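Lecture notes, unit on binding sites. The following record was shown on slide 14. It pairs a sequence with 6-O-phosphono-beta-D-glucopyranose.
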Amino acid sequence: MQKPDPITIVIFGASGDLTYRKLVPALHSLACAKLLPEDFIIVGAARSNLSHEDFRTRMNEGVEKFGRLTGDQCMPWADFSQRLFYQRISYDDTDSYTTLTNTLQKLEKEFKLPGNRLFYLSTPPSLYAPIVETLGAVGLASSDSGSVRVVIEKPFGHDLSSARDLNKRIHGVFKEDQIYRIDHYLGKETVQNIMVFRFANAIFEPIWNRRYIDHVQISVLEDVDVGRRAGYYDKAGVLRDMFQNHLMQLLTLTAMEPPTVWDATLLRNEKVKVLRAIHPPTGAAVRTNTVRAQYRAADGKGPTYNKEPGVAPHTQTPTYAALELYVNNWRWQGVPFYLRSGKALAKKVTEITIRFKDVPHMLFNAENTSIEANELSFCLQPDEGFHLGFQTKIPGAGMRSEPVDMTFHFAPTFGVKALPQAYERLLLDALLGDAALFSRADEIENSWRIIDAIQQGWEQSDGPPLSFYEPGTWGPSAAETLLAASGREWGIHCAD
Ligand code: BG6
């Protein structure tokens, strides 16, 4: 494995939850797995007044609680923590960035680091552009003495125009190849494996098209409700929170053409082509091809979205959506892609199911009343693996058959702790300068174009009505109707 060059990692928003739960535990696991360079430092920056020791103590707790690999399994905390520092910052004060520059220079001298820097923006999104612009103003974006990259957390904009504006302001300081926009779904092993499965096996790709596939289902279902995030969530809703990023990524990886080599530009070109081929429903089709819903306990006792603290009582924000989309190109013409995602559902399960067409002619009809078509499911989480459903003969007289399931799961083959956490892979790639698993500017903007059109359709008087679903179920009946209209139904293949 290639190792990154010696580097200084600066995390803005270092007193926040993401740094505590994900970023530092991921960096520590990378150090454990000997994937970080020999020489590195991590400087946390945030508004809180913390000493280096306060910061280290908090990060140690995060590593112990959330790290895949912890101190007793590999790198002793004492070795790691001596490379961890904290610098208080006022985001709107240029002098504060000058102080940060001095701190970085001093530490880089002490640790003999060459001046390669990775800035990670894990702050509220309204600070992304101001931070980047101030980095530019104080000279911290200059790559004169080493590589400089910036990692930007989601959400990247809240609609097409804000995403364009943000891209423009960031491009005023950094070149596109220095910018790493995070979608943590791309860091998931099982999501990357969609590409390996499709393009490293010869048997699936020839049938991966409209001739053999009836439809595709992408389900990203969550059992958690909006919890303490209502303030953010009520302004965002499920389309912006989940579809613009995660579901669109899953769709593009499932539908894209193979790039000729594994290369960030070529790969992302293919993904953008898929997005450009999606013409979101407009007019009456918004009503027939989309569903929006909120969770609401009928008995008034269970979780109810508009009663969550911080949510407006008359809110129209959906916590669940289902969409029927089409990728208008030669491979996929006429094949529906059904996407659904929601909160407060029966179980957490993320899966992509490819439903193949029925056999063209059935020999055994007299003895089989219902023959199910083949289905291939990518179980993305939590029980990572595959299921392939096919018909097999029931032993005994006659030619009766029934569907059976062929499965593969990662844990028994590779071990329970074998799957790195998403942030491990993404941080490592950003340190290596490989942007393949990050969203490009045009990719984000094309995805917002689709989401904006649906969102606008929902805001019109003839859009689909807001429906409701009982928490702890699989969603609203309107989502079933969406598929039933063409004689199809949703399936869950990766959970009991
Ligand atoms: C985040 C969303 O991007 O993804 C959350 O903001 C959601 O609302 C989360 O819960 C789901 O991520 P995962 O990795 O648990 O599927």
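Take-home: The first strand starts at residue 7 and ends at 12.
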